[in-house]
Amino acid sequence: MSQQSSPQGLNRSIYIAIVVSGFIHAVTFFLAKSSFSQWRWQHVPFHSAIEVFGGAIAIFVCFLLLNLEKNKRGTSFNIPIAAAIGAMGILDISHALVEPGKLFVWFHSIATFFWWHFLSFGCFTIIYTNKA
Question: What is the pTM of this model?
C-alpha cells in the first residue's frame, strides 16, 4: 500500500523545515557572536575536502537536471539551473585545489559570479520569452 501525501501535509512539512532551519541558523549565529567569537580553526586540507565534496555534489545535481530535461521532466528552468550549478561546482573544485591567496579568493568569487549570472539570465530569458 502506498500512501499519497496531501498538498496540505507537504506544505506543513515545508513550513516545519523552514522554521527548524531558521532556528538552527539563529542559534548558530548567536553562538558564533557570543560564546565562540574568539574561536578560530584554520585547516586548509579540511576546507579543500569540503569544497571538493560540494563541487562534486553540484556537478552530480547538474547531471540530474540535464537528465530531467532530456526526459522532458522537471521545470522549464532545468538548463539554466544546471548551467549555474555546474559552473559553480567546477569553479569551486578549482578553488579547492589552489593554495590560499589571491587566486584562491578569485576562484570562489568567479564561481559565485557565474552562478548568479547563469541562473538569473537563464531564468529571466525563459520568463520573458514565455510572456511574449
Answer: 0.68
